[in-house]
Design brief:
The structure holds two protein chains of two kinds. By secondary structure, chain A is of the alpha/beta class. Chain A has eleven helices and 14 strands. In chain A, strand 10, helix 6 and strand 11 form a beta-alpha-beta unit. In chain A, helix 3 crosses helix 5 and helix 5 packs parallel to helix 6. By secondary structure, chain B is α/β, with parallel strands linked by helices. In chain B, strands 4, 12, 13, 14 and 15 form a five-stranded mixed beta sheet that branches. A five-stranded mixed beta sheet of chain B has the order 7-8-9-17-16. Classes of the chains: A alpha/beta, B alpha/beta. At the A-B interface, strand 2 and helix 4 of A face helix 28, helix 31 and helix 33 of B.
Amino acid sequence: MLYSSSGEPQGLIFNIQEYTIHDGPGIRTELFFKGCPLRCIWCSNPEGIVATAQLGVYPDKCLSLEKCGFCLKGCPLQGASPIKHDQNGVLAAVNMVQACKDCLKCADLCPSKAINLWGKRYTVPELMKIILNYRNFYLKSGGGVTLSGGEVMLQWEFASLLLKECQKNSIHTCVESALHCPTEHMEVVYENTDLVITDIKHMDSVKHKQLTGVGNELILKNIRRTVELNKPLVIRTPVVADYNNDEENIRAIGAFLRDELGGRILQYQLLPYRKLGTEKYKTLAVPYPMGDYLPPERPVWEANIRDLVDILRTEFGLPAVAGANHKLPNTK
Amino acid sequence: MSENVLRSDAYAAASQVDTKPQAIEPFDKEWGVGLSGNTPEPSPFPRINRILSVTQKTTNGFVSPERAELVTQAYLEHPEEPQIIKCAFGIKNVLENSPLYVYDDELIVGGLGCDKKGAPVHPEFGLNWVVDEMRDGLMDYSEKRTHDYFSYTKDTQDRLEALRDFWNGNTVEDLTNVLVTEEELKGSHAGKGVFFADAYIFCGAGHLGLDYDRLMKLGFGGIRKEIEEKMAALDLTDPKNLEKRTFYRAALLANEGSINHCKRYAALLEEKAAATADPVRAGELKKMAGNCAWIAENPPRTFWEAIQLVHLANCMILIECNGHSISYGRFDQYMYPFYQNDIKNGISTREQMQELIENFFLKIWDLNKLRSHILIKTFGNGGIGGPALTVGGILPNGQDGTNDLTFMVLDAHAHVRVPNPWLAVRLHASTPWELKVKVANCIRLGAGEPKIFNDDVTIPSMLSSGIDLMEARDYQVVGCVEPDVSGKTYGWHDCGHMNMAKVLELAINDGRCFNCGDSCPRWEVCGKQGKRLGLQTGSLADMTSFEQVKEAYDKQMKYWCDRMVTLLNAVDMAHQALRPLPFLSTVMDGCVEKGLDVTMGGTKYNFTGPQGIGIGTVGDGLSTIKQLVFDEKKITGRELLDAVEANWVGYEPLYALVNSDYVHHYGNDDDYADELTKFGMDTYCKHIEHRPNAHGGFFQPGCYSVTVNVAHGLNQWASVDGRVAFEPLSDCMGPVHTYYGSHDIKGPLAICKSVTKLDHARATNGTLLNWKFTPSAVAGETGRDNFIALMDEYIQRKGMHSQFSVVSQETLIAAQKEPDKYRDLLVRVAGYSAYFVELNKALQDDIIGRTSLSFD
């Protein structure tokens, strides 16, 4: 766990959305924990993968060295600065791997956010202050807090402290996790979790590994355990045409949910792939893993997903839906 | 008051008959999300779809000369009469002699004395601009006028030109100019535009609703009887009563005109019926003739008669005076007894009444109004403008008044999807869930209707203006924004627009404009002579504490409010002298009782309501100054002034910083900025509220811009909040979004909290917050319910008024590129909805730029 200079536990968070409506019931505040053990090829939050603070570079926003130059002036390395500009004086990169002291001063000084800091450390009281701001909205809408990522389980100790504090304040808690984590960590987090959202990206572990960098054994084990513990559970599949939208895969997931979990899930959501986050890849100087991939035309794609939902509902009797805006059964 | 009690008790008892709302659509019927008007044949009624297929989806029209001629003729025939009698002869002549039209399929008649989309001319307010624009090619379509344009024939132009001499020197514009001096004009529309106060120089004040209870109870015949009785009872030895007698004479003339107008329609419909072969249509026409013949003098008996009377009476108000925002009151309340009676006695079915409401909406959309090429820049795509219609809310007795008609009215909007009427739904803590669902589904459709008003803050706000409790509970929404007691208020709502951001500019720049120089049209009489536009309140460069900035803003605000108040009162006096409204006076409460015209304070409540514009711009401006200059001393006051005077050129890092979240900004639930925004708004309210006005009441501040933020912005140099020259000011109560980016970055919950830290109840002339959601943010069951939860919280936090846009950014941009494909794309502008492709580019960009609350 991270600690502040005064010894308080801290979490590394790369985004706080003070209004989300698609990750758990009602109106929610969602915290994105930095660091993830998976490398899903369609990941739309690449800034959440690395478990340390990072700088993202937006050349379009740079005012140029001629007009500004605050980043270089503030850099302690001066001549050997990892901040690179092109021949027009426009910011090109910050090479954090080499030479950089990770002081992050340049992000602080940049007036136009051409250098953006991904990942900020927060204590539990700091986050609670933000979360409690919107308590009335949670109460009115049946919402609460969702911890997401990256992978929240990587910061399981901090997460569990935060969730405990939320529950103490009567705020509904949801954890959205890939569940690729030690089962004991998961169980500690669950002590203060009201709802779990997780994914099954592919039933074939080999393909799962191709798509996400890890096999699915641990994930499936943790899902079974989640059901054993009677945790309210939502399962999702991000459906990507030509990667995991074949009926065979969807049927295999259906069979797992019905036969191994006894259908004890609140909802099974099929989420259509959207090409999001490509800009953020650029700012991190990382290529988009799916390259120029485009999903099929919208009507075709929507029909395909509706067909898959039909299979799951009729053949497997599962509470399957397309998208994340269908009401969940009441979990309280 | 006792009458009100009776009425409300009757409604309350009635509403218990049907505990669950019954309409022809289920309460949770969905029409899609973000579709707006892009659906063929939206109505379940073939008749309505047929009418829709010939309805022009445009506010463009043509100029009709008849009204101007008939009014001029009446004035010429009665040169010796007092002004009010001339006016009465004028309206009477138009009602009795203007052309009338009956259209295929329609079940209701009434217009403005000209064909559909025609706009009559009102020379009483000024004829020169009309003929000048015709002469200069500024009225019909041209590069200089690409929307809200009006065609006209050579004949029309000649006929109006022939009237010019008669009106020269005798208009409201002419008299106003005599009543004021350079001191009031220098900051006005005729000068530097610190404030606009010209809205009612060139047209009527409007912004009112007639007394629907009075009209339904008495009918025009009952009103005539009342006037005659009052006149007969006058003791004419009292000189004051001589004046009253003149008023009653005028009222009787106007009343006779209104009765004859209905009878003319009855005769025309009989004629049409006789000439119609189709027996079904002939039967309809005969029935319509009967309706008009009956309501000419008698109170209506059926829903059909009542809705016919409502439409005709409002058309007559518009014919008399082209005031904006002639509003339709609490339609679901005053129509409910007719609805119930028709159902109970088998007179008409729910379906028939639904069809009538839809036809009625389309009739309102066919009306039109001529505006100058200047006015359409501040008020684009308005049609007649402001025909608000209110449903829902509590009754005078404090109970919820939702009934079947509340639902049917909202269904009617979803079925016709034209921008009129401007629907307002009143919500409160005990509004039934079913109504909230209906409202949410209408809003999600994305055509921009309805707006939501909050009883729980509006009623206390009205009480603070001295309005009786039961009447306050019975309020309607007028026009874009204003709460009003229908039939009892002459509110002069929306009469002026103070640019608060310009006031801040002058406050920190020692009374000088940032761009003072020889490019200014006033340079010769002002800057060149070492003078300055405003009050000398010091320069930010010399100020040593933030308190001094606030003090300067306060003093500068008083200085400009003083001048705006004087000018508005001068316009008010010119209306009273030249443009009394005898017909309107007969259908308002109190005028006949008192023997006093409505313009002179004849009805019960008399206000003048000018708005403060640029609330967010001022808030972020003050916040920038406080944080960067005084708290952090990151820059000096001189540097900030230099940067703004340079329009930020050469100050790019500061420009980026001021526009970044480094600076505290309004709209992020950040007390630092929110409290300064509140100070900016309260200062405006303080210098407006309770000042006496010229028609016997007092001033009420409002806090909304509608679209004037664009016009004021076009007039103003850069500002300290990170705005560049000529960019729009912040919209209504909303946060700032500059070309650089949105200053609010935390989403709708933070906006909701920030905006409700401001004191909405103090803005007794109304407030407005425009919300814009992407379709995905409100899609699905969860989208609907979360939207309702968000509104519930806004209401609990005492936000007064919200309007919604649910269209994706991509759709708007696509519509800009290919307007022909998006003719039916109706969007919320502010206060009203309009066809997006008909708006001017600046306004389109402003709408596209509003923060989109998307969380996909």
